[in-house]
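Tutorial handout. Part one gives the primary structure; part two gives the three-dimensional structure as tokens.
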Amino acid sequence: MHNSLKAAPILPTEALAPSESSRKWASVREVVERVLSAENEAKARIEDARKRAQALKAEADRMAAAAVAAAREKALSDSK
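Part two.
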């Protein structure tokens, strides 16, 4: 039986002294908090970009409608 293939624990807390273990968990907590913060920031940026895109589309739609209305009026006046 080979013991060399035994998997090492992900966080080897049993090998750490109590103060080292708490520092390790604090470090893991900090990493998790940073990841969650980055995720929230990314979601906020995506939402802002969606809002800007919607505003640009609405403005383009207004401009297109105005151009169509102007072309329609010109066509009507030219046909008289």
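Part three, for discussion. The CA atoms of residues 20 and 26 lie 10 Å apart. The two ends are 100 Å apart (CA to CA).
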